[in-house]
């Protein structure tokens, strides 16, 4: 049951990332072409920045899902056995804690923009776009914490 939910979540994340990337590419290309003719869409630049933020957060979620995020590679080369597992546990818990702090801070930003009714463009509130930040950091914190307590055997570096 849990595996099925995780698989569905993965498909949603991957599909959203692909669709948003295509929209970003075509919208940015259209903006460039329009500017060649001294015509531009005023609201498109903030929308493109918002798309970049969403794609970046979805990409970070994918990286944490596949354990491909930034790592301290030196630890895997210097440690082994229980010390490697302990170091991995500590780094995963530290990453989870940082993500919790970032989720909390970004939630504050969303609340602030929601209360102040800050617009992204026209009548679209900025907080609608920013909501990916606390959600994304929260999901990353959850993934790091789960990985910390369901420790997969870390791969050993190849001998050279």
Automatic annotation (TrEMBL):
It is a multi-pass membrane protein. GO terms for cellular component: plasma membrane. One of its GO terms (molecular function) is transmembrane transporter activity. Coiled coil: none annotated. The chain crosses the membrane at residues 12-34, 46-65, 86-107, 127-146. GO terms for biological process: C4-dicarboxylate transport. It comes from the Bacteria. The keyword Transmembrane applies. It holds the Pfam family DctQ. Part of the tripartite ATP-independent periplasmic (TRAP) transport system. PANTHER family: 2,3-DIKETO-L-GULONATE TRAP TRANSPORTER SMALL PERMEASE PROTEIN YIAM. The complex comprises the extracytoplasmic solute receptor protein and the two transmembrane proteins. This is TRAP transporter small permease protein. It comes from Ahniella affigens. The lineage of its organism: Bacteria, Pseudomonadati, Pseudomonadota, Gammaproteobacteria, Lysobacterales.
């Amino acid at each position: 049951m849990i595996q099925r939910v995780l698989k569905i979540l993965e498909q949603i994340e991957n599909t959203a990332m692909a669709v948003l990337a295509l929209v970003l590419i075509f919208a940015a290309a259209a903006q460039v072409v329009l500017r060649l003719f001294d015509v531009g869409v005023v609201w498109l630049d903030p929308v493109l920045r918002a798309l970049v933020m969403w794609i970046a957060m979805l990409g970070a979620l994918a990286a944490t899902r596949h354990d491909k995020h930034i790592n301290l590679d030196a630890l895997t080369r210097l440690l082994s056995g229980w010390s490697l597992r302990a170091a991995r546990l500590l780094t995963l818990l530290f990453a989870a804690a940082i993500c919790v702090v970032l989720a909390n801070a970004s939630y504050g930003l969303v609340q602030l923009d929601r209360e102040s009714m800050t617009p992204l463009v026209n009548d679209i509130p900025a907080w609608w776009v920013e909501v990916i930040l606390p959600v994304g950091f929260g999901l990353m914190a959850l993934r790091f914490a789960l990985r910390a307590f369901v420790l997969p055997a870390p791969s050993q570096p190849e001998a050279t």
